[in-house]
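REQUEST FORM: STRUCTURE PREDICTION
Request ID: SP-0412
Submitted by: Lab K.M.
Chain count: 1
Length (residues): 467
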Amino acid sequence: MYKEKIDAYIDSKRDEILGDLMTLVRIDSQRGEPKEGMPYGEGPALALKAAREMMDRYGLITKNYENYVVTGDLSELPKELDILAHLDVVPAGTEWTVTAPFEPKILQGRIYGRGTADDKGPALAALYAMRAVKELQIPLKKSVRLILGSDEECGSGDLLYYYKLEEEAPCSFTPDAEFPLINIEKGRMAPEFCGEFPEEEVLPKVVWFKSGDKVNVVPQKAQALVRGLERKTLEEKAAQIGEATGVSFCFEEQADGILITVRGKAAHASTPEEGQNALTALLKMVSTLPLGKSRGNQILMGLNQLFPYEDTKGKSLGIWRQEENSGSVTVCFSILEYGSGRVRGQFDSRLPIGCTEENTEKKAASKLNSLGLRMEENSMKAPHCVPGDSDFVKTLLSSYERYTGVKGQPMSTGGGTYVHNLERGVAFGCGMEGVDNHMHGDDEFMEIDTLLMSAKIFADAIVKLCS
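STATUS: Completed
RESULT:
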């Protein structure tokens, strides 16, 4: 009954939506140094201010929570639905080709700029869905609150602050993922570990080893300095490992040894099988060398056994398990610093339903402890799941199906979203299957047709949930 009105309304607001999105994209809202009244710096605070002015202009009841979040309520009726989006962005990037990161540009049905897809565009799709319902005067029995945050990319401290003051709504979704809908988010364990070993001049030896700088990225470069072996021996071993793994090796003779550099392929830590881990490839190569018997060399051999290149499922670490709906454990050994009698490392594991402190965190800690290494405690975040057969999930999927004509099924992800800690929260839009929006990369964009359709889907869902 109301679908035609919503469709016509959203289509008529195309230029306004794009204009508002350009306003937000022009604000560099990367996290900055805290200032008085600006917990995440000036940029995020300016983005919240601009968004609140838009919500005021479109008749929502707004509130600023000390520049952590701003909210806009559709009405004063009891709240049924929270929609959570964020206005902070990842670093700008340096290799844009279509436009500069904060100079939005429309080209061939797309709008380019940092935040267009993650998450300023989806935030405006939600805002215009609410505006459509309000201005079309579609009768509702419950209200909706749009929650716009400013720290999603750096830990979601904004929501920690907000939910100390406010209760979770009966239903929540974030338009910061993909359609159809994500109802299961794997848990995560990304602990640091460390240890010490005596410096022994036993040759051959690895003098130092270094790889990785971000725990949630498969490292694409690793280096080690080896002393006491001929270059020919190293090249022979490297050729075997390179053929098996696809990584490349190069060597540089220095006064105190031979520097080995490995280059692999980066990927997100939640999908380590898509990358070529330079760290574990170099560990694999080092483990084949005729090194002398020393405590330091034993630690490197042990780490290779716990995190072998071929194993991205945590089987060697003793934490592998698989669950029908949420998939398998994944493990990415991301960071290793070794030398001068110290070793420090970190790995990133994504955990399906059924992983617990007992069968996951304690097992990993025990394995590392067997090498004389200490693992950080209380590092595990539990998996998140909203039942796929719940009325809430079914309602959202029905709105997706109504506008796409495609049957929607709930999905799981190894990544985490804004609703991971909400009992009744799911991720719903705005990415479309098969479309790479270059989120977190250069030349990020949002397809304009997808942006408009998302607003229509959200409006349809609001009416169904709140009538």
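NOTES: The mean pLDDT is 96.
Reviewed by: T.R.
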